Amino acid sequence: MSLTIDDLNFAYGPHPVLHRLAAGPLERGALTALVGPNGSGKSTLFRCFSGAARPLGGRILLDSQDLAVLKDRERSRRVFHLAQDLSARAALTVFEVVLLARKSLTGGMDLRAGLCDLRLVQTVLGSLDLDGLSQRHIGTLSGGQRQLVGIAQALVREPDVLLLDEPTSALDVRRQLEVLQIVQRVTRERSMITIVALHDLSLAARFADRLLVLKDGCIAEEGDPEEVLQTQATSDAYRVGIHLERSSRGSLLVEPYLSSLRAAE
Ligand SMILES: Nc1ncnc2c1ncn2[C@@H]1O[C@H](COP(=O)(O)OP(=O)(O)OP(=O)(O)O)[C@@H](O)[C@H]1O
Q1: Which of 173, 210, 212, 253 is most buried when burial is the number of CB atoms within 10 A of its CB?
Q2: What is the mean pLDDT of the chain?
């Protein structure tokens, strides 16, 4: 199974945002990092996937099936979008919001949980080191802890397509690595198609199998992260120079620098 974006156009009222955007195919089991400057359209593209934004033209194809023709329930079962801004409903505990994310898969009003669901929630909370917080009300958590709960909600859904919008922006360095490692592992184990919007290019280079660079609502560059990061199109998208280096541990380190300094060299 693969995912292809074909000639996608989107506008907020009179303001065009995505222009004939084409990318893919993105394969199952692969983690793609979606990068690009502020306002380039990353979140908007995710909204087109989830159905929250309706494209003016073009298609998103899962295999050869257009997501737009799926019924809402089927679409939300197959595609999960973890947005940037997570609401905090104070009345529910961590365990409850994650269980609710799992149970909402089946739709309807029957929210009784089976043993399998309870076990899955427990396992996912454990893998994110959240077991100690499971009875805390969500509204009392820190921003980073809430972000981890959002990731737990995404993982218990087990979608075909997982979209994470800056999932590590509020996390400390250890948690950033842990979360991306878990997302990478789960993507492979469950053969999901995962796209993670990231601002940190070093994290993108380290964890992504593929990189999509968005600029002004178009794909500026796409492909192997190391190759893409060396292209002029990627530097131009951010208006910076990009220096790449391998650390002694083998990780790719990405050092962006201001273009004015680049010109002076
Ligand atoms: N609800 C909206 N109504 C009108 N314009 C919007 C709306 N949401 C986003 N935009 C505009 O669409 C463009 C793309 O925004 P989007 O949030 O998709 O970018 P992004 O790449 O995710 O940015 P960031 O990296 O800052 O999160 C921006 O110019 C933004 O101002």
Answers
A1: 212
A2: 88
CB 166 within 8 A of CB 13: no
The verdict on the CB of residue 17 being under 6 Å from ligand 1 is: yes
Mean pLDDT of 89-101: 85
Residue 38, ligand 1, Cβ within 6 A: yes
The CATH number linked to 144 is 3.40.50.300
pLDDT in tens, 184-195: 988 998 899 999
12 Cβ inside 6 Å of ligand 1: yes
The range of the structural domain enclosing residue 159 comes to 2-264
Return the sign of the alpha-carbon dihedral for residues 3, 230, 185, 175. negative
pLDDT digits (tens, 9 = 90+) for 149-158: 888 998 998 8
* Model ipTM value: 0.97
For residue 40 and ligand 1, the question of a CB distance below 6 A is answered with yes
Indicate which residue's Cα is closest to atom 4 of ligand 1: 12
Residue having the nearest C-alpha atom to atom 8 of ligand 1: 44
172 — pLDDT class (breaks 50, 70, 90): confident
Q: Which of 131-135, 142-146, 224-228, 250-254 has the lowest mean pLDDT?
A: 142-146
How much is the pLDDT for 85? 66
Number of domains in the chain: 1
Q: Is 42 in the pocket of ligand 1 (CB under 6 A)?
A: yes
DSSP 140: G
**Cα 264 to Cα 262: distance, rounded to the nearest angstrom:** 5
**94-103 vs 143-157: helix axis angle to the nearest 10?**
30
Query: Does residue 193 contact residue 27 with C-beta atoms inside 8 Å?
Result: yes
CB 226 within 8 A of CB 205: yes
